[in-house]
Amino acid sequence: MLDYLIEFSKEYADVFLGLTLFSALSVVLVMILGARVLARLPSDYFLSPQEDKAYLQHFHPSIQVFLPFLKNVIGVVLVIAGIVMLFIPGQGFLTMLAGVILTDFPGKFRCELWLVQRPQVNRSINWLRRRSGQPELKLE
Question: How far is CA 13 from CA 7, 10, 18, 116, in A?
């Protein structure tokens, strides 16, 4: 059995290297982009549900359809990659979280609000926002 595992790992060494590099890159991207998004989020974002499509108003109607579609496709790919990373070395949970954040689904705002209301999460986000010179998030 051990010989089989050794042969398998030698045969697919390039695949394992690629998955490891993808995993490391996704960790860095999630950390950098996540911190930037949290720092730039309006402080009153969680006071009432919002329609987050306002950023699309300045684009051509065909692009207004394509961008949300692309965002959801990228989100689903990240969720699938995160699930795979749960079984291989990598930040599966963080990658899945980034995918869920990008994906639009019913009840998403309530899930985000529930997560941000956790004391440890709220403390961490507000620490990050203070370091970025932004006011703390306002919650109900």
Answer: 10, 5, 9, 40
Place of tokens 């599966």: 92
Continuous segment of H or E residues that includes residue 52: none
For residue range 7-25, list pLDDT tens digits in order: 888 888 888 888 888 878 8
Q: Tokens representing 133?
A: 């010179």
pTM: 0.61
Helix (H) and strand (E) counts in the chain:
6, 0
- Is residue 78 packed enough to be buried (19+ CB in 10 Å), middle (13-18) or exposed (0-12)? buried
Number of neighbours of residue 94 by Cβ within 10 angstroms: 18
For the record, the structure tokens of 5 come out as 């595992």
